[in-house]
UniProtKB/TrEMBL annotation:
Protein name: Protein disulfide-isomerase-like protein
UniProt entry keywords in alphabetical sequence: Isomerase
Superkingdom of origin: Bacteria
Organism: Thermogutta terrifontis
Classification lineage: Bacteria, Pseudomonadati, Planctomycetota, Planctomycetia, Pirellulales
Annotated stretches, region: Disordered: 698-723
Single annotated GO MF: isomerase activity
């Protein structure tokens, strides 16, 4: 493979290949041919031999490090990188390889310093090498694997936006994955900002930024600390210090800085965010976290135990929904929800439990049949420390043994009691309450202000909201729930509680803060009507970035109201998210939004926007109504004309649509058969079950005149692009 003589030297020496490694050109071309032919092992042996003869070749060391990494030889790569840097200390490629070797050995601080030297040498040469960006990405990926998400996001953001703005697709994909990590608190997966946005802090912000984008986090921290020596009461400087320590994986130091910021700003949004971050970084900062156990007990009498499980009023059997719930012999393993109260009086007991928060779901229970190497057993997951004694008592009743035969007992996670309570209320209510959720909402709005949180002792949430010293705590507790439980019902309850306790910020101050920090959590507490068109657009894009779908629903009415002034694509995406959530959660009510849907489709056509996804969602919603046995005949008769009209529209206008055309062509026959089946089931004749059963054609299967299944042959419809 020919190598461009006028490309930059692969060894990072700052010269063109012709002037730096001209006499190595045949060797480089030979290595490229071997690598292209998937002969990496031979290429590695060859470059090792050449370097033994002449080690003073930066370009060959660059290939040696690359091939060592490709072969998975971590130790050899570390030795090669160290020798590469020893011989060529000013080579950015050598320093990038050293950073990778150091991070693979869990030496984060040294890897960060190597990257800083990398950037310095690239700037000195006036050229930035792609392998340096790749090294930054590798360090960030290691950080993410170790759970250091804030630092990983900072490294990736710097790599993509500062040093590779034109070709950062791969880096942005990793960034998107980190932004969407639901197992990480929202406050710890935000895009990096210094937090210095006052006009009088502009010079400090500039100096800090210049250090940060060069990975000189320690120098940036020194700049902030020098400023704090003369200005110790500036909350933004303490917030910035917390961010810098967070990116250096100094979590205790970051929590200390954030806490100081919160002490200095006891009323504003900055203080609330700082207090929330400090509390999250502290282990069990909210005071109500407890261990959740995995317990496995041996079953000596399987038949007796199964009978006891199915007859226990506290257990709710969960029917299998997928093949994943079967064992290796294809037999379904019975699964249950262990409830704190009997199923028969569940709703009333749930309302009583809301006064003093107790999770209604105690544990998940699985009965596992005996296998060749294991006895029959009961597996309980999610048993809290406080419930363990009660669960063991019930397990003895199921097993019929006074002494439980313990196969395993281990802590598999920790969780907040109050968060579990609200998650359980959300899941249990949808399973048992049959539309009584409004009663639960009302009871929660009354009960939550009266709850006592360990971190607020001896105050209730309501009392803390009236205390100037504790008001921020009341805010962060509600904000913590909002980011941990993205449920529209819970979000609506918490917003009512927020209003009831008068926790609102000054809207102008809050809007300015979000403009400067792009903090998605605080968007929960902003009034959409108070935003300008530009601010509303920016907020919605931020919510898309972090996939805050329930929150995006709050802004949808305002977006639709201003759709003639906003970017049409933004309007379309906001509505598409709404329609997708609606069809998934409230499919039987699909007809209620149908006029609005048709209005949005017209809007898309007027602005030449591709809108096949809306037709697809409409199709799913209508089929769900027509195929459901629980839908009334009257509703089905209303839905059928919409379904037939949609099919006609799809075949006329969307067969060649790249977004939805393949689906129309692939499923057209099935869709027309469904239309006939739905119509027949609503006008008499065959039942819907009969009409939708798959049938296999055979030569002697033609129905005769006497057959009750005889139906007129449907008119064939020609679809462009189909035989």
């Amino acid at each position: 493979m020919a190598i461009d003589k006028f490309a930059m030297c692969p060894g990072g020496m700052g010269k063109k290949v012709k002037f730096c490694a001209g006499n190595c050109l045949p060797q480089l071309e030979r290595l490229e041919k071997l690598i292209t032919a998937d002969q990496s092992r031979a290429a590695r042996q060859q470059v090792t031999t050449w370097l033994e003869r002449d080690p003073n070749r930066a370009c060959l060391w660059a290939y040696k490090c690359l091939l060592d990494r490709a072969a998975g030889c971590v130790e050899d790569h570390a030795k090669s990188a160290a020798e590469f840097v020893r011989l060529f200390p000013d080579s950015p490629i050598a320093l990038a390889e050293l950073a990778i070797a150091q991070i693979l050995e869990n030496r984060f601080q040294e890897a960060s310093e190597s990257l800083a030297r990398c950037v310095e040498q690239c700037e000195a040469q006036g050229y930035f090498y792609y392998r340096v960006v790749a090294a930054m990405t590798t360090v960030a990926e290691w950080l993410a694997e170790q759970g250091h998400i804030p630092a990983a996001i900072a490294y990736l953001w710097i790599a993509s936006h500062r040093y590779d703005p034109q070709n950062h697709t791969e880096t942005d994909e990793i960034l998107q994955q980190l932004y969407h990590r639901k197992d990480v608190p929202l406050e710890l997966r935000q895009m990096p900002t210094t937090g210095l946005f006052k006009d009088e802090l502009r010079d400090l912000d500039s100096r800090v930024y210049q250090h940060v984008v060069r990975f000189r986090f320690a120098l940036a921290e020194q700049e902030v600390q020098r400023y704090l020596e003369t200005n110790p009461e500036e909350p933004q400087a303490w917030f910035c210090l917390g961010n810098l320590r967070l990116w250096q994986i100094n979590y205790p130091g970051a929590a200390e800085a954030y806490l100081r910021c919160a002490q200095l700003d006891q009323t504003g949004p900055l203080g609330m965010v700082a207090l929330l971050r400090a509390t999250i970084l502290k282990k069990n900062g909210f005071g109500d976290t407890e261990n959740l156990y995995l317990l496995r007990y041996e079953v000596s009498d399987p038949e007796r135990t199964k009978e006891a499980l199915f007859s226990d009023p506290h257990l709710d059997h969960v029917p299998p929904e997928s093949p994943s719930q079967t064992n290796d012999r294809g037999l379904t393993e019975p699964q249950f929800l262990l409830l704190r109260y009997p199923r028969s009086d569940g709703f009333e007991q749930l309302l009583r439990d809301l006064d003093e928060p107790r999770p209604p779901l105690v544990s998940y229970v699985l009965y596992s049949r005996s296998r060749d190497d294991e006895p029959a057993q009961i597996v309980l997951t999610g048993v809290s420390e406080s419930d363990r004694s009660w669960v063991e008592t019930r397990a003895r009743q199921w097993c019929g043994d006074e002494e439980l035969k313990v196969l395993e007992e281990s802590v598999f996670t920790t969780d907040s009691r109050i968060l579990r309570m609200l998650r359980d209320v959300s899941s249990v209510s949808s399973r048992f309450l049959d539309g009584k959720w409004t009663d639960v909402e009302s009871r929660l709005v009354e009960s939550i202000p009266k709850w006592r949180w360990p971190v607020l002792e001896p105050l209730t949430l309501e009392e803390a909201a009236r205390d100037p010293q504790k008001k921020q705590w009341a805010r962060i507790l509600l904000a913590h729930i909002l980011q941990e439980i993205p449920d529209r019902h819970i979000a609506r309850v918490l917003h009512e509680v927020w209003q009831k306790l008068h926790l609102d910020f000054d809207q102008e101050e809050l809007t300015r803060f979000i403009d400067k920090t792009a903090d998605p959590l605080l968007i929960h507490f902003i009034d959409p009507a108070r935003l300008s068109d530009e601010q509303l657009s920016a907020v919605c894009k931020l919510l898309f970035l972090y996939q805050q779908v329930p929150l995006l629903e709050r802004f949808r009415p305002e977006v639709l109201q201003r759709r003639d002034r906003l970017d049409p694509e933004l309007v379309y995406f906001v509505y598409e998210v709404h329609a997708a959530v609606f069809v998934r959660t409230r499919q039987q009510e699909w007809l209620t939004i149908h006029p609005e849907l048709e209005e949005m489709i017209t809007y898309c056509e007027q602005h030449n926007l591709s809108h096949g996804r809306l037709h697809e969602l409409d199709l799913v919603g209508l089929v769900g109504i027509l195929a459901s046995k629980s839908t009334s005949t009257e509703i089905k008769k209303q839905a059928l004309p919409f379904f037939e009209k949609l099919l006609e529209h799809l075949v006329r206008h969307h067969v060649n649509d790249p977004e939805i055309g393949p689906m129309v062509r692939d499923y057209w026959h099935k869709l027309t058969q469904m239309a006939l089946a739905f119509k027949a089931s609503l006008t008499g004749g065959r039942s819907l079950d009969e009409l939708t059963q798959p049938q296999i054609w055979t030569p002697d299967a033609e129905p005769g005149p006497e057959s009750r299944l005889a139906q007129p042959e449907p008119k064939k419809i020609w679809v462009p692009g189909m035989d």
